[in-house]
Amino acid sequence: MQFLLCPNFFGQYDDQDSDQSQPSNLHSISSSFNSSLSSQSSLLSIPSLTPSTQQVEHPAPAFHHLATLKGHSSYVFSLALAGKHLYSGSSNSQIRVWSRDPSSAHKNPSLNTVAEGYSAVKFILILGDKLFSAHQDHKIRVWKIDHITPHQKYKCIATLPTVNDRCMRLFSAKNYIQVRRHKKYTWVHHVDTISALAISRDGSLLYSVSWDQTFKVWKTSNFDCLESVWNAHDDAINAIVLSNDGHVYTGSADKKIKVWKKNDGDKKHSLVATLEKHRSAVNALALTTDDSILYSGAASDGSIIVWEKDGGDEHHMVAAGALKGHNKAILCLTVVSDLLCSGSADKTVRIWRRGIGKNHSCLAVFEGHRGPVKCLAAAVDNNHTRDTNGSGTSYLVYSGSLDFHVNIWQIWVPLV
Predict the structure, then answer these.
(1) Angle, alpha carbons 120-125-241 (nearest 5°)
(2) Which among 208, 232, 209 is positioned nearest to 219, based on CA atoms?
(3) How many CB atoms lie within 10 A of CB 179?
(4) Which of 125, 167, 379, 380 is the most core-located residue (most Cβ within 10 A)?
(5) How far apart are alpha carbons 210 and 138 in whole angstroms?
(6) Are 26 and 302 in contact (CB under 8 A)?
(7) CB–CB of 343/376 below 8 Å?
(8) Omega before 59 within 30 of 0, i.e. cis
């Protein structure tokens, strides 16, 4: 397992692979990767935010590879953290549950399959005792999480759209949408792969986006479909994130990010802004916890654009710069505290942190997967701190790959 340090940091790292981990070839590397915020040929209109000189931090970050979770026999498409558990979904329709504790996460992989038998799992989301899974067969499934019986198969309590929802729309022509020349469906149906899910701040609404170019809104209480925004984009929608103030951001293969808002008294979401800087499909989106920054990852150039709120318009964001370091498509992004984690088709995970002003620094590059990194999850590691004087924070990063494995990494980051 290999760790690469970005040029503006010289950290400490060691390998703590369990018996389930891949063979380690860890060694110290000082590299000159171009991995800070920079302009690029495909994004010429976006300025560089990289300072001319960068100061080395002391103490430096420390990195560990803690475990490799083996159990899936196909691509790992989705990860989700909830309580003491990590959930993973794969292309062969399996959903597995693992302990978040790296020391025991790899135990009994043959017993941790909690759902299977339908279609490829593209996205997982946890809400209380319910697990929502988005599938390639155009369906959303709701599973009742069993907290009492270990390794018990979860019961599927609903499939969206529900039978009741479908039946209510059958007998009125206005409920049908032309999806192909000789094919119509009711508006509550997705008619292509469901690529991502998001939950509203109060947990009452579930949002879904699909390669059918629509996004839909569902009630989490009875699973009714409340709204469908048809032709929201001109191509497949790959990502969705929600802000705390109700803005909805959707990223699409049409190279655009669209911003939607449903104001008080409105029945439907309205388009309030369109963000256009990427020159290829938008694959991933992530918002900072305070909603001040939106990160977007593209398909072809390995760029991550940093969008910031435009002070004069609450709906609009402007491109402040681009993080450049990955050399292939960005496939996934996640934010934890002030860190951004990015996964790429180049088989690496990068950890970024915003510094003074608009500048960002790449703290580390994790290498170890043998296939593209398709999904990420991250959280503060409250059980493992590097010191007792509060000089830094430890994080756990989980990465799922097309190599069928999930890796667990630990990074300790000093306070700014």
Answers:
(1) 105
(2) 208
(3) 15
(4) 125
(5) 8
(6) no
(7) yes
(8) yes
> Phi/psi of residue 305, each to 5°?
-90, 140
Q: How many CA atoms lie within 13 A of 132 on its CB side?
A: 25
Site of tokens 């002070």: 311
Burial of 145 (0-12, 13-18, 19+ CB in 10 A): buried
Distance between first and last Cα of the chain: 28
Q: How many CB atoms lie within 10 A of CB 88?
A: 26
Q: How confident is the model at residue 4 (pLDDT cuts 50, 70, 90)?
A: low
* Structure-token match 């991550």, residue found: 304
Q: What is the pLDDT of residues 378-389, one digit of tens each?
A: 999 987 655 546
For the record, the structure tokens of 402 come out as 């097309």
| pTM of the predicted structure, to 2 decimals | 0.88
What DSSP string runs through 110-127?
GG-EEE-SSS-EEEEEEE
Tokens of 48: 């560089």
* Residue pointed to by tokens 């369906």: 139
